[in-house]
Amino acid sequence: MMANQPMTDDELPVLFSLIGNTPLIPLHFRSDGITIHAKAEFLNPSGSIKDRLAAFILLDARRRGLLKPDTVIVECTSGNTGIALAMVGAALGHRVRILMTDTASVERRHLMRHFGAELSLFEATHGYATGIDMAEQMAAADPRIFLPRQFSNELNARDHTEHTAREILAQVHGRIDAFVSGYGTGGTLNGVSRGLRAVHPGVCIVAMEPAEAAMLQGESPCCHFIEGVAGGYLPPLLDGVSIDRNEKVASAEALAMTRRLAREFGLLVGTSAGANVVAALRTARDLPASATVVTILCDRAERYYSTRLFTDVLAETA
Ligand SMILES: Cc1ncc(COP(=O)(O)O)c(C=O)c1O
Fold first, then answer.
1. Residue 50 is a catalytic residue
2. Distance 299 CA to ligand 1 centre (A)
3. Hey, what's the torsion of the CAs at 115, 300, 296, 241, to 10 degrees?
4. What does the domain layout of the chain look like in residue ranges?
5. Cβ < 6 A, ligand 1 pocket
6. Confidence check: pLDDT of 290 > 90
7. Can you tell me the distance from the alpha carbon of 282 to that of 230, in angstroms, rounded to the nearest whole number?
């Protein structure tokens, strides 16, 4: 599809109908007598929760006439947003340029390039702030650039209120007692908690953070292996979120649970999904057995072949 061929909403590529409406999977942990309800965001077409925001923000920009035939979409991302924007940009016929830290897994870079996006890597030392500044400077110098601004764009959170939360509300019969999520941009925590609270005001909102980088609890950002979350930056979208409970999850616990989700549940998910489930289990243990705890399986395992999720196991079995 060429960007210079105007498209009506009815003519949108079928890809857009594949985004969202993901299943809510009950995970029965028999030894604990606990069931966690996990939203299977890894089933989105590019493999992560970020397909939602890429489609929502770009379609909104398109309707408002902000995407011209020569528009270049530029974003700073830990990877999943880059893959999602590269996919949606390709479907809409736009060039996409991604700024990402040099620590993000090599599989993510391959996937973005596969969708035709251009990549610029920056040093991870100062977290996302470096890439966000770079994107703003590029846009100031080139009027063809459109910035989705995932870290500050209200649409990121609003999409989760209008879609992710609404889907969860329709999928859970009865009260929702807790919602557990890590944060990268904070869009998921902000938007889903707002949507759930409107219907279940007593829902406990739990922020999962890597134990090595628990910035919400005043600790300095440090190296951790839970890719996609806590990128050394407290995003503005978290400002409006009232968090009831913080759960620190160590990278080793997240990796162990991610492997357990594959081996015991047959779920091919990434490390932040494992971390979310660890935090959800801890939360559920402090609630009555009948409580409903919901969390997110953010992305797919295949983008972590080169990371400890797979390489540690290879080393063990070599
Ligand atoms: C793997 C993974 N998990 C969780 C998140 C956090 O989502 P959000 O940006 O909505 O806070 C991200 C975001 O980049 C991610 O890539």
1. yes
2. 8
3. -40
4. 9-43+164-313, 50-146
5. 48, 78, 80-81, 182-188, 227-229, 270, 272, 298-299
6. yes
7. 20
Q: In whole angstroms, what is the distance from residue 187 CA to residue 152 CA?
A: 9
Is residue 39 annotated as a catalytic residue, yes or no? no
Give the pLDDT score at 130: 85
Residue nearest to atom 2 of ligand 1 (CA): 228
Q: Do domains 9-43+164-313 and 50-146 have the same CATH topology?
A: yes
Q: How far is the CA of 229 from the centre of ligand 1 (A)?
A: 5
Pick the CATH number of 9-43+164-313 from 3.30.1490.190, 3.40.50.1100, 2.60.40.10, 3.30.1490.100: 3.40.50.1100
Amino acid code (one letter) for 68: K
Give residue 265's pLDDT band: very low, low, confident or very high (50, 70, 90): very high
Q: Check residue 163 and report its DSSP letter.
A: I
Catalytic residue among 50, 181, 248, 251: 50
Report whether pLDDT(134) > 60: yes
Identify which of 52, 128, 229 to mutate to test ligand 1's pocket (most ligand atoms within 8 A of the CB): 229
Residue 21 in tokens:
């409406």
Q: CATH classification of 50-146 is 3.40.50.720, yes or no?
A: no
> CB neighbours of 156 closer than 8 A, spacing ≥ 6?
53, 56, 57, 150, 185, 187, 190, 191, 237
pLDDT, tens digit, 9 for 90 and up, residues 199-230: 999 999 999 999 988 888 887 777 888 887 87
Q: At what angle do helices 308-317 and 251-265 cross, to 10 degrees?
A: 70
Rounded-to-10 torsion of CA 297, 259, 77, 211: 90
* pLDDT the model gives residue 5: 56
Confidence of residue 267 (pLDDT cuts 50, 70, 90): very high
Structure-token pair, residue 116: 């035709």
The amino acid at residue 69 is P
